[in-house]
Amino acid sequence: MEMCSSSEKEAEYHSSDFDWEELREEIEKLPSLSYHLSPHISASTSDSSLVEADSWRRFHRRHSTARFFKERRYLLKEFPELLSCHDSVKVLEVGCGNGSTVLPILRARESVVVYACDCSEEILEKAKEIVVTAKSITPKNRFVPFVLDFNNNEFPEWLFCTSCQSSSTSANNASSDNRHENEASVKSYQKVTDYAHENETSINSLFLEGNRCCVGGVDFVTLIFTLSAVPFCTMPSVIQKCSSVLKPGGLILFRDYGVYDMTMLRFAPVQKVGFREYFRSDGTLSYFFSLDITRDLFCAAGLIELELEYCCVRSVNRRNGKEMRRVWVHGKFQKPIV
């Protein structure tokens, strides 16, 4: 992938420690792992449609400490657009968990505002606590957490209402050269939050006080190890929802589990509920992406592929000395300007 500057060269080691094609050939030759390659589903495995937000709420309850999720410090190296973009940047973090992705984004620049959703109110409270106590961050009016099961519900109208989406599209169709003219009208969002326990009704009332209907859409949507947690059959609708709240020209920044990642190979046959789709023992779901499937999903939503590749990372388990080969998919997809 392209590096933004020489200072970011160190990020390279997080993307090409080994060749994915060589890993694929090795795995596909092993009879003991052949069930991962087959579309056959175990009859004893539960239907993936039974996955509910409750499983993730329980997961967050068990793993609520900051130690469980480390801050994703690589994020700005993998997605330098978050640093190089214009002022008053708005980011929507989908499935924010305890804030491991939010922290580096807020540290990146003072003008960034992060809207963060999760299905668990408890984990949002934990994320708020972590953000408030973090060093080098002034969180007031810059962190807007809200509860949402995005797999089953639409994003709230206060992010980008239907009327403003239509107006934005019309304006961009009329003249793509004037696509930044309306930005001044959506920069005033300082009243949005006291960044705790705000629900859609209270946030919406704050907008109405300022004679505004919504924040005018976001510049970036981050999907960081989030899409793999929803059933494959609902992924197209989730991506479409994410695209709907993006401004024209905005980006979806994607990172998730790739095919033949070490985690995938550890699943037993009875945990398989779909092709490259598995149930964990705690009831949560895990899907492993190929580049082709990722491309099809995002392009079907009308997005433009800017970057898409496997990130192959080799590390060693300190406790047992065993080598671990991790595979992730890195992608950037843009909403068309016209």
From TrEMBL:
One of its GO terms (biological process) is methylation. Its EC number is 2.1.1.-. Transmembrane segments: none annotated. Keywords: Methyltransferase, Transferase. GO terms for molecular function: RNA methyltransferase activity; S-adenosylmethionine-dependent methyltransferase activity. It comes from the Eukaryota. InterPro entries: METTL2/6/8-like, SAM-dependent_MTases_sf. The keyword Transferase applies. Belongs to the methyltransferase superfamily. METL family. S-adenosyl-L-methionine-dependent methyltransferase. This is tRNA N(3)-methylcytidine methyltransferase.
